[in-house]
Q: What sequence folds into this?
């Protein structure tokens, strides 16, 4: 039987030396930065806040709402996620469309006055084995309880987006190896953008416990 | 000071699985060699950090050496001026000073073996060693200071060296510069097992309070920082006075003022003047090694402030958060990275804002406890030395992978 190997990850944060002081600059830089930068600000966000999730689930939305104090743009940008099989390039296009449309309705460009500029970064993810492998659902549950939270990030967000698997590693293994399609589908139904990694851990564990004892 | 603490000891205080991750990551670097170079083995945050990190690397079977650059009085005067100029202060640096910098770097470089696979050069003092870089080795320049607005002439001089490294590491995004090499972000860290941060018993805490004649009859508002205008101790007293109209409390301003820093002594004097005739304000001028005292004060406090108006990273915030305390900080520098507004503390922009948040925390004990708990967990995940170690390891693996 194929075992599931829990793999954690560590993020290297690279500074791009590019900053936006207003929403027009933000738009222009979102257009030009590498795709790994869009990824950093929309997904590895969770890796940096794996205990506490911020107000909105991406850096662009939080910056507009908190630093520029443009709640409207913040709310609109917060709604952009990769759910539904979107790629990071799809997300980039959505951000551009939203900011462009928002700015076209304004007479002046909202800018940072008291807040901080937006600094663009990009992420490089280094995958690291945790040394834990499991062969059945009961073992999976035990491992999930104690694994480093970065493994949850790696098998959920990284697997779906960077590795372009469309589904999380967890769901794929549970369906293909354990043959528990219903549980795998429940995993995929979780709106993971609404949870910190620790909260996601609890949610996944609840579903597994339901399967084992329900 | 327990300098030789094993990495294993950190399992109890770090997130589950994180120490295992470090061991597995280090396996990819086994027997690769590492060299750290800075300007001192004693005193200052960099030396304190290396004192812990270097034994960890060796424990992970990554043979690691730590060398220092030794200079002349003129060299130290020059690098001190570099430091100030890079932090934005106007400095006069003569051609003789630049020549001394080059001369001392060359002389020291002859004494040090640069055969390591990876070399990390800390801060400007030894940056000139780059000319000794072997072709296959990877060299990183680790800048610990705030160079967001450097004096151009000095930065242009240093940039000649820095541009030859394989990468540069900064502590905050706004410290990044226009450079042709990759630039990385690495937050500083605190050591949870050091005297300043380790768990204390109630008895130890009470012992310190008794020693400094601090009663525990009222909630304690605390700020720990040098007596420096940018830490705004006078603003802290103003905020306390507003709070005092509504709530009983005691303010402690604990810090040091270097005897060779006339401005620091003046600030201390101004603070003492402002606090006169209020027996609920306690000013402690502590020696630099009063780590256990600071630890006890932080653990005894109800609310901790870091009301800076200018700040580098501001690790005193992480130290306070690690003790599970709600922290109110100025919305500047690295304080905004550590405090997630409303969740791990509050950032404020004025005396009034500071006073309001103190009152809020004093009167909402459940919220204060929740924020303190969040703050501790946030620090556990983001600002402990084990995370710092894994950042270095990951960067080395990154360069190894090409």
A:
């Amino acid at each position: 039987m194929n075992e599931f190997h829990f793999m954690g990850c560590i993020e290297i944060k690279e500074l791009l030396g590019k900053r936006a002081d207003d929403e027009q600059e933000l738009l222009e830089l979102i257009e030009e930065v590498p795709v790994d930068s869009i990824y950093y600000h929309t997904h590895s966000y969770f890796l940096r806040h794996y205990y506490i999730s911020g107000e909105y689930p991406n850096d662009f939305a939080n910056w507009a709402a908190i630093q520029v104090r443009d709640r409207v743009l913040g709310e609109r940008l917060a709604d952009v996620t990769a759910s539904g099989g979107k790629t990071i390039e799809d997300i980039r296009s959505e951000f551009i469309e939203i900011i462009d449309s928002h700015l076209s309705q304004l007479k002046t460009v909202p800018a940072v006055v008291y807040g901080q500029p937006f600094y663009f970064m990009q992420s490089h993810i280094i995958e690291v084995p945790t040394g834990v492998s499991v062969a059945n659902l009961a073992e999976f549950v035990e491992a999930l309880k104690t694994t480093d939270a970065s493994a949850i990030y790696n098998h959920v967000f990284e697997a779906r987006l960077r590795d372009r698997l469309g589904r999380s590693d967890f769901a794929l293994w549970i369906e293909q190896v354990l043959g528990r399609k219903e549980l795998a589908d429940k995993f995929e139904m979780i709106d993971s953008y609404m949870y910190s990694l620790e909260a996601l851990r609890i949610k996944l564990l609840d579903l597994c416990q339901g399967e084992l004892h329900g | 000071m327990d300098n030789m603490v094993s990495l294993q000891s950190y399992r109890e205080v770090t997130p589950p699985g994180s120490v295992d991750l470090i061991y597995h990551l280090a396996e990819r670097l086994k027997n690769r060699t590492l060299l750290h170079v800075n300007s001192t083995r004693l005193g200052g945050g960099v030396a304190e950090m290396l004192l812990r990190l270097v034994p960890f690397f060796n424990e992970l079977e990554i043979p690691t050496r730590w060398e220092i650059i030794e200079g002349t009085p003129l060299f130290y005067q020059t690098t001190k001026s570099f430091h100030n100029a890079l932090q934005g202060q106007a400095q006069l640096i003569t051609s003789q000073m630049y020549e001394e910098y080059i001369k001392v770097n060359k002389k020291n470089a002859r004494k040090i073996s640069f055969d390591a696979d990876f070399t990390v050069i800390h801060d400007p003092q030894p940056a000139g060693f780059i000319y000794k870089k072997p072709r296959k080795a990877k060299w990183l320049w680790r800048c610990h200071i705030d160079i967001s607005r450097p004096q151009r002439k000095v930065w242009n001089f240093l940039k000649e060296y820095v541009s030859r490294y394989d990468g540069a590491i900064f502590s905050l995004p706004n410290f990044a510069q226009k450079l042709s090499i990759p630039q990385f972000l690495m937050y500083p860290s605190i050591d949870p097992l050091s005297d300043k941060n380790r768990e204390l018993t109630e008895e130890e805490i009470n012992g310190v309070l008794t020693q400094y004649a601090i009663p525990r009859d009222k909630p304690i508002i605390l700020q720990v920082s040098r007596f420096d205008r940018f830490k705004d101790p006078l603003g802290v007293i103003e905020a306390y006075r507003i709070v005092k109209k509504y709530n009983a409390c005691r303010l402690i301003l604990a810090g040091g003022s270097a005897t060779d820093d006339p401005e620091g002594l003046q600030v201390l004097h101004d603070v003492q003047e402002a606090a006169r005739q209020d027996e609920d304000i306690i000013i402690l001028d502590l020696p630099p090694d009063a780590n256990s005292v600071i630890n006890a004060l932080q653990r005894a406090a109800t609310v901790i402030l870091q009301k800076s108006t200018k700040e580098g990273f501001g690790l005193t915030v992480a130290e306070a958060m690690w003790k599970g305390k709600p922290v109110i900080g100025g919305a500047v520098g690295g304080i905004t990275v550590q405090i997630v507004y409303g969740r791990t503390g509050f950032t404020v922009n004025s005396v009034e804002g500071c006073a309001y948040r103190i009152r809020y925390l004093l009167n909402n004990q459940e919220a204060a406890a929740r924020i303190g708990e969040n703050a501790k967990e946030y620090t556990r995940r983001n600002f402990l030395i084990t995370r710092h170690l894994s950042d270095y390891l990951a960067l080395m693996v990154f360069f190894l992978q090409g």
Remarks:
- Residues 140 and 206 of chain A are 13 Å apart (CA to CA).
- Chain A has two domains: 4-8+129-213, 11-122.
